[in-house]
Design brief:
The chain is 29% helix and 22% strand. The strands form four sheets. Strands 5, 6, 7, 8, 11, 12, 13, 14, 15, 16 and 17 form an eleven-stranded mixed beta sheet that branches. The chain has a two-stranded antiparallel ribbon with strand order 1-2. The chain has a two-stranded parallel ribbon with strand order 3-4. The N terminus is likely disordered. Helix 1 crosses helix 2, helix 5 crosses helix 6 and helix 11 packs parallel to helix 12. With 371 residues, the chain is an alpha/beta fold. The chain starts with a strand and ends with a strand.
């Protein structure tokens, strides 16, 4: 990515600072390419197409990040490829582990050339459970949506990740082959960077790629149209909508994107698709004391979602600086949940994970620096 670029981890175990960057023009990345594109890359340096299939197997099936480990590709062939391409993989530059076993990784991501390059840090979170290991991945450095209760949104937008940046989060963590699921719920709005996210999902679900079932992938969005329609038309992966308030005027105060992408239009689109089978749609609802946690909001949410095969996930708000609201009480969250369940809306309270390392929902804020 750069000839010299160091990310220093502060004494606090979950804060990082980028302090020195020097760029060189980057070679083309192989990570994120399809099987056909990897075959074309091999041919472009005078090799046979089967070398592209070998690259595909090493990157996506064996998930290696070192040219030297690609032992069935000859040394001269690797040298030819290395003149034009880089793998596009890099190790995380920071790691923090929560008392509950959640692990947050910091990755450096950069621009494409000297004229426009910037370096940012993005975070990915691995959440272990009894029978699964879920990776929460980032799709952008910062975010344009500006949700007032989200640390990522409050830092502004610093750039889109490319497909290699996204997939590198899967390869760079500890024991990547043991991952069972992923959620595009990290930094950024996935549907605002749909080209790169779509390519990453293709690699994750293709037979020549990670070969994951679409049921193992969930994309979370505030409802960016028309990318949402493209996603629903193209993939059978799960969908999570960040709703947080059933009243559009109240939602707008916390989520400026309500103006460009009204929740009513998002719901109208979702109702055109079948979620009674393997693909699920859920609604994320972060609960704030005195803002969206009472009977009036519960009843409005019931009316809004009535007849739709869906689930509501209640999320405890995690305090952030300079924000006026606190989290709803456990009693208020339980009463809200019970009211929805008693009216035919499946509702659960999501367990909070990784709060002590700022890895919980709404707390990701990789440091941005441009030099």
């Amino acid at each position: 990515m750069c000839s010299a670029g160091l990310l220093r981890r502060d004494t606090c175990k979950y804060k990082y600072t980028i302090y020195f960057v020097k760029f060189v023009r980057m070679k083309e990345k192989l990570l994120g390419k399809t099987l056909t594109e990897l075959q074309e890359a091999a041919v472009s340096v005078g090799l046979k197409p089967f070398v592209g299939r070998q690259l595909c197997e090493w990157l996506y099936i064996k998930r290696v990040s070192d040219w030297d480990r690609m032992t069935n590709i000859g040394r001269s062939a690797r040298a030819s490829l290395m003149e034009k391409y880089v793998l596009g993989t890099s190790a995380p530059v920071g790691r923090a582990e929560s008392s509950d076993g959640t692990v947050k990784y910091l990755f450096a991501v950069g621009g494409q050339d000297e004229a426009t390059a910037t370096v940012n840090a993005v975070e990915a979170v691995m959440i272990p459970e009894e029978d699964r290991r879920t990776l929460c991945v980032s799709s952008q450095a910062g975010c344009k949506m500006g949700c007032r209760f989200c640390m990522t949104g409050r830092q502004g937008f610093h750039g889109n990740l490319d497909a290699a940046d996204i997939l590198n989060q899967f390869l760079g963590i500890d024991d990547p082959c043991t991952l069972t699921n992923t959620v595009f719920m990290g930094m950024g709005e996935p549907l605002d960077n749909f080209g790169a996210v779509s390519r990453a999902i293709e690699v994750l679900t293709a037979d020549w790629g990670f070969a994951w079932s679409p049921k193992r992938v969930t994309l979370s969005t505030i409802g960016v149209l028309p990318s949402l329609k493209k996603y629903l038309d193209s993939y059978k992966c799960h969908l999570a909508i960040s709703l947080h308030n059933p009243f559009p005027d109240e939602r707008l105060r916390m989520m400026p994107a309500e103006k460009a992408f009204p929740s009513a239009g998002v719901l109208d689109l979702i109702r055109q698709y079948d979620f009674s089978g393997q693909r699920r749609v859920s609604f994320e609802y972060t609960m704030f004391a005195g803002w969206n946690d009472d009977k009036r909001h519960a009843d409005a949410l019931i009316r809004l979602l009535r007849g739709l095969e869906c689930r509501v996930n209640l999320i405890r708000f995690h305090r952030i600086p300079d924000f006026p609201y606190d989290t709803a009480s456990p009693a208020a969250m339980e009463a809200f949940r019970d009211r929805l369940n008693n009216n035919g809306i499946v509702c659960t309270i999501r367990k909070s994970r990784g709060e002590d390392i700022l890895a919980a929902c709404g707390m990701l804020a990789g440091k941005h620096s441009s030099h």
